[in-house]
Write a structure and sequence with these properties.
This protein has four helices and seven strands; from the N terminus they run βααββββββαα. It has 161 residues and is of the alpha+beta class. It has a single domain, classed as Alpha-D-Glucose-1,6-Bisphosphate, Chain A, domain 4 (2-Layer Sandwich), CATH 3.30.530.20. The protein has a seven-stranded antiparallel beta sheet with strand order 1-7-6-5-4-3-2. β6 and β7 form a beta hairpin. It is globular, with a radius of gyration of 15 Å. The C terminus is likely disordered.
Length: 161
């Protein structure tokens, strides 16, 4: 049986290095409020969205133009029974050239359908990858979360709980 880890893809006409550089610019597509090193091997960064979601992530693998892997060291969700949810999971960005295009496949290993946050998290990841990251690569500007600026309807709903 195949894996049930959440995966989302997007395709762009830019080069694999363009995609790689954009992924490493986490503040440009996920959140402007990231603190720490997102573009260095063994770098550690903190993400937070209001008091709803916080996590500490380590960059554990970087192959320029090809792959980036993050490990979630700590996590807190306000909206789930299991507040530590993502802790110990990995997020892998695979970048491949294909027929003049670049395919980006993000797999969140450990984010599976049985998981309490699966629907909200998969909807959010899909938005970040297929819209915000895609726009950062293709147009030079993503739509990251900013102060008091929820990215998705799910996040807007969570912020009001």
């Amino acid at each position: 049986m195949g894996t049930q880890d959440f995966t989302v893809t997007t395709s762009v006409e830019q080069t694999p290095m363009d995609a790689y550089n954009a992924i490493n610019n986490v503040r440009g597509w996920w959140s402007e409020e990231i603190e720490g090193d997102t573009d260095k091997l063994n770098g550690i960064f903190d993400y937070h969205y209001e008091d709803v979601h916080r996590c500490k992530i380590e960059v554990i693998e970087m192959i320029p133009g090809n792959k980036i892997v993050w490990r979630v060291l700590e996590n807190y969700f306000k909206f789930t029974e299991d507040e530590k949810g993502w802790t110990g999971t990995t997020i892998v960005f695979d970048i491949t050239a294909n027929d003049g295009k670049t395919l980006i496949r993000m797999t969140h290993h450990g984010l599976v359908p049985a998981y309490e946050c699966f629907n909200i998290c998969s909807d959010s990841w899909t938005n970040y990858i297929q819209k915000s990251l895609h726009n950062l690569i293709t147009k030079g500007k993503g739509k990251p979360d900013g102060k008091d600026k929820p990215q998705t309807e799910n996040e807007k709903n969570l912020a009001t709980k």
